[in-house]
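protien #1 (seq + structre)
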Amino acid sequence: MEGCRLCPRECGADRKRGQKGRCGVSGEGVMAARAALHMWEEPCISGEAGSGTVFFSGCSLGCVYCQNYDLARAWAGKRISTGRLGEVFFKLQEAGAANINLVTPTHYTTEIIQAVKTARKQGLVLPIVYNCGGYEKRETLQMLEGTVDIYLTDFKYMDEEAAARYSKAPDYPEVAKEALKEMVRQMKGDTVFDEQGMMTKGVIVRHLLLPGHLKNAKAVVKYLYESYGNQIYLSLMNQYTPLPQVLKEFPELSRRVTKREYERLVDYALSLGVENGFIQEGETAEESFIPDFDGKGL
C-alpha cells in the first residue's frame, strides 16, 4: 500500500497516504459500490439463488469500452473497512447467495485475504469467486492461493495493438497467459460441481467479442483450447454494449456485435473441439444488464 505493485502496472503509488494508483483508488479499507445477489453470471455461478456479488470501485486495466465505466474509474462507491467487508460476506450468505463473487478485486487483494480469513473463522462457508479482467500479476495471484475457490477471469486480447488501443496495455497477452497458468495451477486443473450443478472449484475464462474483432477472438479461443483443453470452461460473450464514452474516439466500437459475428466465433470454437463452455443467446447487449452502483448492501 505504501508503494503499490499489486497489479502489472506497478505504479508504486503510496495509497496508504492518499496517493491514487493507476486503479484510481487510495486510502484505508476498500471502496465498493454494490453488494447484492446477482443473476447475470454463468449458470453455474448464479444458479437460481444468485451470486453474492461485491462490486469494488476502481480498476487497474481501465478498458475504454467498460460496461461499468463509472465504477471502474472509481467515480462510484463508498468506503468501508475490512471488517465491514467480512460482515457483507455474511449478509450475502444469509441472503442465500451461491458464492461470494468479488468483481474487479485486484487492487484490494490484501484486504480481501484478511476479510475472507476472518470470515472463514466465523462461519463463512461459501466458495470465493475472483472475478477479474485477466491482467494480473502471478505474484499477487500466488498470495490468493487457499483463499480463492473459483477464478472467473477475462482473456481479452491476443492482439497487442488492440490491447494497447483499448486498455493501454500492450503487454496484456503475455501477462494474461502467465496469470491464467497460475490460476489453473492453483486449481490443479480440476473443476468441481455440487449436486445442484453449481461450481465450487475451477476456472472459467470469459471472452467478450468486440465488434470487428473476430480475428482476435478466434486467436484467444485457439490459444485457450490448445493450452488447457477441458481443464477450463470458456464463456463466449456477445453482450458488448456501446456506451457514450466510446462514440467519438473509438467509432469502430460504436455498434453492437452482429449475430453473424458471434455465430462464427461459436462455430469456430466447436470446430476446435471445445466442449466445456457457455454461450449467450438472445439480446444481451442492453444497458439494463448493468446494475445500479448505489451502495446497496454495504
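ok now protien #2
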Amino acid sequence: MTYLGIDIGGTKCAVIRGCGTVIEAKRQFATTSYEETLQNILAAAKELFTDEVAAIGVSCGGPLDSRRGVIQSPPNLPGWDDVPITVLLSTAFDRPAYLCNDANACALAEWRYGAGAGTRNMLFLTFGTGMGAGLILDGRLYEGITGMAGEIGHVTLYPDGDHVGYNKRGAVEGYCSGGGIAQYGQGTARQLAEQAEAGDPAAVALYRRVGEDLGRTLAILVDLFNPEAIVIGSIFARSRELIAPAMQETLAQEALPAAVSACRVLPAQLEEQIGDVAALCVAELGGSGYAV
C-alpha cells in the first residue's frame, strides 16, 4: 500500500508519500498564514498523489476532534479555527482521510515501526518543546472521549511549583520539556546538555533534577497503566545518559515494584523521521480505528 501523510506543525509542514518507514517522496515548507499554508498543503498533496494512494493521514497538534476530522484552534496555528481538514482532503482526492493528535500519531509510529514494536501496551512521551503522551492500550490507540487522553504535561507535579506548563503553575510540562528546562534561566535544553556532557557541575545537577522529575512523572503513568514499555522522544533520546540514572532511581522509589519491573523505558528510535512516519501511520491505521 501507498499513503499520503501530512504533518502540520507550528513552524513547518510536510507532505509525504510512502508506507511505514519507506518514504517515496516528500515536500516540506514553512508554516505561514492559514490560507497560504492550506494552499501549500493541497498543492503538495496534488503533486505527490498517485492512483496507488489508498488513504491520507494528517498529524497535527491539538486541540482537535479526530472523530470529525476538525482542527480546533491549536495555539501554535493561528487561524486554524474549526478547519474540517479531512473533509477538504477526501473531497479533493476521493480517498478516505484521517486526523490524529501529533503525540498520538507519534505513538503509533514508534509502536508500529520503532522502539515499541511488538508490544500491546505502550506509552509514548514527546518530551520536546512540550510534554504530551500517546497511549497504546491493549493493541489500540486510546484517545479518550474528547481526544485529550494522555495530556500528562497538564498534571500537577508540584502544587507550589514556580515553573509553568500548559498555562498551569507546577505542571509536569513546566519541568519535563524544553520549555520547562529553559525556565531554570540557565540556557536552552540543548545548551545545558552540552555543558553537562562537558562536566559542568551546575548543568549536571540540573539534568539530575530533570531526571528525578521525569521519574516521578513515569511513576504516575506506570501505576495507572502498567505498560510493557514507555518510549520517550526528543530530549530524553538525545540526553539519555544525563537523565536516565536519576529517572530510574526515582521511578523505582515511587511506583509499584511489580509494575516497574515489567516496564522498559526506551528512547525513541525513529528520530528525525518520526513526524513523517507518524503521518503515514495515521493513514495506514485510520480505517481500522488505530488497531491491529
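The chain has a mean pLDDT of 94.
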